[in-house]
Amino acid sequence: MTKVSDSHDREAFPTGEPVNISRRRFLLGAAGTMAGALVLGFGLPVRQVRAQTPGNHAAPGTHVPAFLEIRPDNTIRLQSPFIEGGQGIFTGMAQIVGEELDAEPMSFIVENAPPDAEYTVMENGLRITGGSMSVRMSYSTMRRLGALARHMLLQAAASQLGVPLDTLTTEPGRVIHQASGRSLRYGQLAPRATRAAGNSRRGQWNCRCQMLPA
Known about the structure:
Blueprint: H1 7-11, E1 19-20, E2 38-42, E3 66-70, E4 76-80, H2 89-101, E5 108-112, H3 133-161, E6 168-171, E7 174-177, E8 182-185, H4 186-196
Parallel strand pairs: 4-5
Antiparallel strand pairs: 1-2, 2-3, 3-4, 6-7, 7-8
Helix pairs in contact: 2-3, 3-4
């Protein structure tokens, strides 16, 4: 179960900011994650929708509603807190994250979060997709998620190849050192990237692509 366990974890898991949970907040295997995978999770701002429901509200934030998992086999898993009902939201999220991560959308496995009230991101406990709400709620966070993952993979490659970080670039699914012609798949770098995660802080990395105005 992907659980934010206590008040200390909540403070270290700011809403809208991706955080490495490969070791600290994940019970590996309970959520089907692979050993050696790089796992980044994030919370989303709690939103209220017009269609109110009676009864007790859910308690958003008690479980990590979404995460990105880069696996050693080079597949990428994205857990979505939103429901896919034919609108193409899973494809859209893979495209948004993939644009920053530099990964093809076809390499993503996108899944719904478990059907549990503790995974909701709306104040009244509903889990719906409509009116472009899912993209509007998560767009900037998804961009940051992909950007941080790419930065961490570049850090891992610099360490493994023994080269400066600024000599590396990426192409879909790979980190490239053009001067030597060497390259490493994201999956090869995932285990090392989990160890470098503690050095990744906002301000050391930026989104690759120009952000759209709000």
